[in-house]
Amino acid sequence: MKGKGEESRVVFLGPSLGVSAAREILEARYLPPARRGDVYRVMTSGVETIILIDGVFHNTPSVWQRELLDAMEEGIQILGASSMGALRAAELHQLGMQGFGVVFEWYRDQLINGDDEVALLHTSEEFGYRGLSVPLVNIRYTLAQAVKEGQLTSELERGLLDYVKSLPYPVRTFESVLESRILNDAAADELAALTNYLATKRVDIKRQDAIGVLRHVKALPDALAAALPDERRVKTQGAPVERFSSTRQQFDRASMTRFYSSQGTFDGAELLERAQADTVYVASMRTQLSARRFVREWAIQNQRSCPEDMLHKMRADFSEKIPRLPDWLRANGLTHASFTALLDDFLLINWLESQAQTIFNLKVAAREEEESELAQTYFILDWARQNGVTALEPLAEPELHAADHATPATLRRRRESALAKWIVAQAPPYFGIEWRFELDLLRWLQINGRAEEVYFQKAVSNQ
């Protein structure tokens, strides 16, 4: 079992807490504030726990709820606190994301709303994310404490909060609180007390929450592991990859997925670009993957699935050919759950093709290299028959018109073969079937273990 150290934990952290201070609390891999796709990029690294503290806002796309849900569905523990983490945890806590701290509770209980509550202006990573403004939650918490300690009335607190909230977040500071006109009528001693309180007792609640969630993970590693329902892992085993998302979302995820190979790392979008540079290969794969998609559509339509005992054996046979599965998964951008889902889909089509003779009661003999194509033809033709699909234009296969005195049976087989080729060439979307070739191509490279080979082919050839 992987240890609870740097490789198994990832923390997205920025202005809420310094990385050096965080490392003293929890051993983990610390990354800059999360942006869209960053969770997908770390999912395949072997991570077991992701702690989302800081994330980007406004000018850069924020981390998706979808990617957090996908990570949880695949057995990764997700915690959120302090800033973007608190906001996303409040949105997803009923779906399994664990929230921690005061800011999370405020969002969860709808005492606050809007990302401007935790937003602030800060320097870049190079300068340590030094804050140039103050998050509204810090001002809100400090003023609440001042009320509790009798240094501020509730009426003044509400007025000051309304004023600060009206300011753009980059100019919110504790000093700006004192610029509110509502204090013009305050007594001199009240104003002096508030000024002193804000100068000496201001609270950085975001920092406290960030420290708190790291300490929580440090103190309760076994409890965190136990908190993950085994049922969630079981549910994802063998589930179709697209069960929870659209083809567009699946493609976005595949494009953002990171591949951790021994030669370096790269994203799915970069891998796809390298693969598509070989136009001959792409043309061949487009035909092959289109045909397999029609076979899969036939299986869905006819409610056919591989027997569990046969599927279990094929899984074992496939996995035995992989010497170091964890390394192989990382190199091909796969988690255990996504690997199982892709593998089951891959094996289902292979099994169906091997059963074509029985399913269609065929008596046609074929060479081994032709068996797969012949099987696909029968599945495609049966799918076409069931859906009333015929060619809209006369098929122009030369062999159909050859004056070779072919028998009616031979001509019929030629017409059927030409129809199947025509259907495959049109591709699934032509018939209203949701399909994206680029997504299937990436999946094909992944499940066949060819990601590293294809991506680094130019580098290897130049050596």
Proportion of residues in extended strands: 5-15%
**Overall radius of gyration:** 29 Å
* Main sheet attributes: strand count, strand direction, barrel closure: 5 strands, parallel
Low-confidence stretches: 223-244, 459-463
- Beta strands, count: 7
Describe this structure in words.
The protein has 463 residues and is mainly alpha-helical. The protein has 3 domains: 9-116 and 206-230, Rossmann fold; 126-204, no CATH class; 247-461, no CATH class. It has helices at residues 19-25, 38-43, 65-73, 84-92, 102-108, 136-148, 154-166, 174-177, 188-200, 205-219, 221-227, 230-236, 247-256, 268-276, 279-301, 308-320, 325-331, 336-354, 356-359, 368-386, 408-426, 437-447, 451-455, 457-461, and strands at residues 9-12, 29-31, 49-52, 77-81, 98-100, 258-261, 264-267. The protein is elongated and about 110 Å long. The two termini are 37 Å apart.
Summed up, what is this model?
The chain is mainly alpha-helical and 463 residues long. It is built from 24 helices and seven strands. The chain has helices spanning 19-25, 38-43, 65-73, 84-92, 102-108, 136-148, 154-166, 174-177, 188-200, 205-219, 221-227, 230-236, 247-256, 268-276, 279-301, 308-320, 325-331, 336-354, 356-359, 368-386, 408-426, 437-447, 451-455, 457-461, and strands spanning 9-12, 29-31, 49-52, 77-81, 98-100, 258-261, 264-267.
What's the SSE blueprint?
Layout: E1 9-12, H1 19-25, E2 29-31, H2 38-43, E3 49-52, H3 65-73, E4 77-81, H4 84-92, E5 98-100, H5 102-108, H6 136-148, H7 154-166, H8 174-177, H9 188-200, H10 205-219, H11 221-227, H12 230-236, H13 247-256, E6 258-261, E7 264-267, H14 268-276, H15 279-301, H16 308-320, H17 325-331, H18 336-354, H19 356-359, H20 368-386, H21 408-426, H22 437-447, H23 451-455, H24 457-461
Parallel strand pairs: 1-2, 1-3, 3-4, 4-5
Antiparallel strand pairs: 6-7
Helix pairs in contact: 4-5, 6-7, 13-22, 15-18, 15-20, 15-22, 18-20, 20-21
